[in-house]
Amino acid sequence: MSAPIPLCVVEPICYSPFPYGSRLNKQMLKHQYLHMNNGLAVRIEEAVNLGSVKLHVFSPSGREIWTVVGKDDEHWADLELQFCSCKHYYYKTMSNDGICYHIKSIEQAKQRNKFVRTDFNDAEYNGFLKVVLLDNTANLLSRCTV
């Protein structure tokens, strides 16, 4: 009797340096972890180098709003609160799964003094905040399905 013919062939959907079907061990997991974090490091580096990190300073109060242009949207972040308006913050950071790359990008940009600074008058603060909040709310709602 011949062997059964498979109905379909499943191809791996992502790159792995390990043979298909191999058992994972600590070394393999460490390699995959470092590979993922190198990808994050690249995203942070790109955000800083491309001028995606922006500091909006309001005078004379000195209030600051940080924003980062991400791959889809512009997100605002508060470093003191470790808050970001991106979806990663809500799904991962809130469940203690790490800080989003937007906050890490701001931290690195501050360390390297490499960010775009824009100065505003305090009279423009409320209007600016409304625009940022409306933009982020609209982006979040556009992804929702009813």
Core attributes:
alpha+beta; 5 strands; 146 residues
For the sheet with most strands, the description reads:
5 strands, mixed
Pick out the low-confidence regions. 6-16
Question: Gap between N and C termini, in Å?
Answer: 53 Å
How many separate domains? 1
> Rg, please?
21 Å
What is the H-and-E element order? HEEEEHHEH
Strand content: 15-25%
Structural class: alpha+beta
Q: Count the strands? A: 5
Number of alpha- plus pi-helical segments: 4
Q: Which strands sit side by side, in order, in the main sheet?
A: 4-3-2-1-5
- What overall geometry do the principal axes of the alpha carbons give? globular
Helical coverage, percent range: 40-55%
Q: What value does the average pLDDT take?
A: 77
What would you say this structure looks like, in words?
The structure is a single chain. This protein has 146 residues and is an alpha+beta fold. It has one domain (26-142). 40% of the residues lie in helices and 18% in strands. It is built from 4 helices and 5 strands. Strands 4-3-2-1-5 form a 5-stranded mixed sheet. Strand 2 (63-69) and strand 3 form a beta hairpin. It is globular and about 80 Å long. The termini are far apart.
Task: Give a short overview.
The chain has 146 residues and is an alpha+beta fold.
Write the layout of secondary structure elements.
Blueprint lengths: L25 H24 L3 E7 L3 E7 L4 E5 L4 E2 L2 H5 L9 H12 L3 E6 L3 H18 L4
Parallel strand pairs: 1-5
Antiparallel strand pairs: 1-2, 2-3, 3-4
Helix pairs in contact: 1-3
